[in-house]
Amino acid sequence: MSLPLSDLQALLPELALLVLMGLVMLLDLLWHPRRKLGVWTALGLVAVLVLSLALAQPSGSQAVWGGILRHDGYSFVFRMLFLVGALVTALLAMDVPHLGDKGAFYLLLLTSTLGMMLMAMANNLIMVFLAVETASIPLYVMAGFYPKDRASAEAGFKYMLFGALASAVLVYGMTLLYGLAGATDFAGVVAGLQQATWPVWMTVAVLLLVLAGFAFKVAAVPFHFWAPDVYTGAPTPIAAYLSTASKAAGFAVLVRFLLAALPGSTLPWWGAFLAAMAAATMTVGNFLALAQRNLKRLLAYSSIAHAGYILIGVVAASHLGVTAAVFYLVVYLLTNLVAFGVVVALESAGGTSEIRSLAGLYKRSPLLALFLMTAFLSLAGVPPFSGFVAKVWVFTAAVEAGLIWLAIVGVLNAIVGLYYYLIVLKMAYVYDAPEEEMHRPVRVPRVQAAALGVLSVLIVVMGLVFAPWFAWGEWAARTLMGG
Amino acid sequence: MSPLTILIFLPMVVGGVFLIIPRMKDQTVKVLALLTGLVAFLLSGWIYLNYDLAQGGYQFVQKSPWLPALGISYHVGVDGMSAPLVLLTGIVIFTGVLISWNMPRIREFFGLLFILATGVFGVFASLDLFTLFFFYEIAVFPMYLLIVIWGWKKTREYAGMKLTLYLFVGSVLALVGALAMVFQAKAQLGYLTFDLLELEKVAFPVAFQKLWFPVVFFGFAVLGGIFPVHNWSPDGHVAAPTAVSMFHAGVLMKLGAFAALRLGIMMMPEGAKFHLPWIILLTLVNVVYGAFIASVQQDFKYVIGFSSVSHMGLVLMGFATLNYYGFLGAGIQMFSHGVMTALFFAVVGMVYDRAHTRHIPSLGGFIKKLPWAAVAFIIGGLTSMGMPGFSGFIAEFPIFMGVWKYEPWIAIVAVISIVVTASYILRVAWRVFFGELREEFQDVPGLLVYDKVALAVLCAFLIGIGWFPKIMTPWVHVGTEYVLQLLK
Questions:
Q1: Within 10 A of B211 (CB to CB), how many other CB atoms are there?
Q2: Are A143 and A157 in contact (CB under 8 A)?
Q3: Is the dihedral of CA B370, B371, B375, B381 positive or negative?
Q4: pLDDT by residue (tens digit) across A164-193?
Q5: Tens-place pLDDT, residues A332-365
Q6: How many angstroms separate the first and last alpha carbons of chain B?
Q7: Percent residues over pLDDT 70 in chain A
Q8: Count of CB contacts below 8 A, A vs B?
């Protein structure tokens, strides 16, 4: 098959990323730049971003590679988001010993990002599976990047086992779907399902299998069990990446599949089922987060809860719902990267990821305390931080769709969330560390401080001037759903 | 740009600068904070005085698109009801800065206090549902941190969290109600808008109003301290540091009452007519029970805390009558109580900072050491009892008239509170300021000049309105007319 020029342009971000991977590999082999490799990777990702934004913006919805990929506003927003996620992750990781000095890490990171970008574009069951595996396999390795550290090794292994199971379920569901519908591209699947001659429960059962596979990626209840252990055990920058880009990728493919392959109206209780999943995800995530003493574990449960809020937008299945979900994911990615970034900084200053080790932060590093406050208040959904508007839009979408009960479950959950986020802030702002530690400032390397600073400013700016970002979400929704 | 916008965002900008520059010297912080407080005070006074009474309606309006796709705009303006409250906020922020001169970690303290002030100014001025919630929720986190960092060690963590959660629960439930309103309006208007001035013209179906009015009204009335969800307030007041208690009881409780009026009564008048007859009974409990509870407290600050519950009950009771006198009195009471209670908490703070106890029987004779504070407390006390010549009389008299018109027996029961209030105020004034000054308090330092200025400013407003009601009633009258016209 020969590639037309327009396909090349559509795939420019991916091709540029491939080139960057080659460069990183060469640099690592020939020059051993150690920690500087992180800077080069990050600069390379900036170049990819700029290049893509300048040259590869889609107009309308374009079928690429014979239709197995789709180059539209929806996939473009997500692809840029993954690039940002990888960029920040590379910066956070570069000073972490045994991680930031290894070329293999950056290569795995970029490979996984490539897989995620394909996930956002995939418009065909087979492509979905390939993309999911491309994104996941490097993640398994990265989670277990410290083989001598028991927690990390356990995290990697656990993630892989759960992941393999989820993939098996996913591919099983997909084969059945193919068997029923007789096609692998989404449009074909829709057409096939509409001429169903089999009982409706069969369709639902098959779809549940596929949904389970995706729910694992986004860590939605009841497929969330892996997340806390993996986040806690994995090197912290990887946990940051897992909880942000990887989750966003899961949502990217989930939303496209649900809205393109499954116009919800054809299946009577499908909406109710998804709504229940959203409610359960929020509630379980938030209530279990209450009991945590480790910051990474707390963030893991909070990220489960946030998957629930985002699912509200998906359940609404409307224009506004998708817009809200995309906006939420953008905000959430930036915010959670800051939250994990603070943990990375704490750990590299000799602290642990226990919540207790935040004590005295207001004095030991006022800047880091401020970043923590920005991130956690944004996660809690408090203005002027962007998490507030993100939450308001998903609740608005729920009310618009007539799901008032779900909006109420959502706001009640926001209260539980506020509680534990404030507890963490209290530790950083109220309590003092032991005397000898109080006088030892936590130093944040300049690059990380700059990265976290830029993200924090973005979090506030997006909370105050949200119209342009909302327009991006709307663009994504429009190209996905038409109209 | 409307001067109102400058007033709203000035404190947050200064507060944000305080927070992001950790190395700023304390002296610089104090000077900047004092300047900002003064500017906010003068600007709010200027807006108040330049409100054109003949013209009425909303003035100093600014409407800029914020998210046109959803019909959301940044829309602010003041009317006769909110102009006094904006002024009140200006007064409290200025005096709050004055009496916080020696706080530890002062940079963060003023930073958070100013962000809180932005939230409060914003809510009073909002003419858009989203704008209103945006500013309302801004008040959440500075409030919490101010209490848990600088509050009274014994209860600050408990009370700070309790207050924050109460405030948040109420407002997010009200948010769902507000969204329901927006989409109901969309069904009737054909387009999406969050603009309050457009929404208040929509005649929502009666069944819809009956369902959603209590949600929205209570969502905000929680912050107004309505029984039985009032008990965050005394705990919160007591645990907070002085300037925050002033803000809290002085301004934040009005925020709740004001928003309950703005989004509850003014948007859903039919719902209000249906539900307020039982809600007024709750406010009666506030008024009477609050006064009795205040009278048995041994802790100086709890007395004031519960007296706020009682006085805020009068505000909500005035609203619940839905008649002219009720609204007029409630409007003035919001201002009068705000200034009065800020004064009370300032005095309590001054005594506590010197005595290190608030246990009333352990105090005594402080008039010898703190004559300014004693006089100020007595002025506040007379206001609180509703004595003629003080603003409390100007406020409470119309409320009781309104309640009498509505249902005489409620007025008769409510009047008990005045007697009880007089008894506990006199008792506390006697025990704390008169009698023998105890040995250990002989060497306590006097007041700073900043403290005296703060007390003088607050007293001036209480007496000024008491003698010259004309400086406040016409404003509230205009505001009341506007509300009544929506209720028709």
A1: 15
A2: no
A3: positive
A4: 999 999 999 999 999 988 889 888 888 888
A5: 999 999 999 999 999 988 888 899 889 889 888 9
A6: 34
A7: 97
A8: 87
Q: Over 60: is that where the pLDDT of A83 sits? A: yes
Sort out which chain A residues have CB atoms less than 8 A from B19's CB and list them: 370
Run of H or E including B67: strand B59-67
Question: Contact A346/A442 with Cβ under 8 angstroms?
Answer: yes
Q: Which residues of chain B have pLDDT under 70?
A: none
Write the pLDDT tens digit of every residue in A264-291: 556 767 788 889 999 999 999 999 999 9
Is A416 in CB contact (< 8 Å) with chain B?
Answer: no
CB-based contact A467 B68, cutoff 8 Å: yes
A366, A383, A426: residue with CB nearest B134 = A383
Cα distance between residue A90 and residue A88, in whole Å? 5
Name residues whose C-beta falls within 8 Å of residue B148's C-beta, 6 or more positions apart in sequence.
Answer: A426, A429, A430, B156, B157, B160, B161
Whether chain B has a CB inside 8 Å of the CB on A414: the answer is yes
A151 touches chain B (CB under 8 A): no
**By CA distance, what is B143's nearest residue in A?**
A422
Is B49 near chain A, with CB under 8 Å?
Answer: no
State whether residue A396 sits within 8 Å of chain B by CB.
Answer: yes
Nearest CA in chain A to B185: A400
Strands (E) in A390-481, as ranges, are none
Distance CA B100, CA B348 (A): 13
Dmax (CA) of chain B: 74
Q: Which two tokens stand for residue B131?
A: 């704008």
DSSP state letters, B35-50:
HHHHHHHHHHHHHHHT
Residue of B40, B346, B147 whose CA lies nearest to B32: B40
Cβ atoms of B335 and B85 closer than 8 Å: yes
Question: What is the domain range of residue B480?
Answer: 3-487
User: Token digits for B85?
Assistant: 């409250």
Non-local (6+) Cβ contacts of A265 within 8 A are none
Instruction: Inspect the interface and report whether the beta carbons of B22 and A367 lie closer than 8 Å.
Output: yes
Put simply, the answer to whether A467 touches B183 (Cβ < 8 Å) is: no
Q: Six-digit token pair at A18?
A: 């491939």
* Closest by Cβ to B145, choosing from A395, A400, A429: A429
pLDDT of A262 above 70: no
Give the total number of structural domains in chain B.
1
Query: Does residue A263 have a pLDDT over 70?
Result: no
Q: What is the 3-state secondary structure (H, E, C) of A103-168?
A: HHHHHHHHHHHHHHHHHHHECEHHHHHHHHHHHHHHHHHHHCCCCCCHHHHHHHHHHHHHHHHHHH
- As a whole number of angstroms, the distance between CA B280 and CA B289 comes to 14
Over the stretch A205-215, which tens digit does the pLDDT of each residue have? 888 899 999 99
Closest CA–CA distance from residue B133 to any residue of chain A (Å):
9
Tens digit of each residue's pLDDT (9 = 90 or more) over A362-411: 888 999 999 999 999 999 999 999 999 999 999 999 999 999 999 999 99
| In contact, B223 and B253? CB cutoff 8 Å | yes
**One-letter amino acid for residue B325 of the chain:** Y
* A475 contacts chain B (CB < 8 A): no
Contact with chain B for residue A453, Cβ under 8 A = no
Q: Is residue A1 scored above 60 in pLDDT?
A: no
**Secondary structure in 3-state letters for A227-246:** HHHHHHHCCHHHHHHHHHHH
Q: Do A392 and B108 touch (CB under 8 A)?
A: no
On chain B, the residues whose CB falls within 8 A of the CB of A419 are 161, 165
Q: Are B455 and B346 in contact (CB under 8 A)?
A: yes
Q: What is the pLDDT of residues B350-401, one digit of tens each?
A: 988 888 888 888 888 888 888 899 999 999 999 999 889 999 999 999 999 9
DSSP for A78-93, please give it.
HHHHHHHHHHHHHHHH
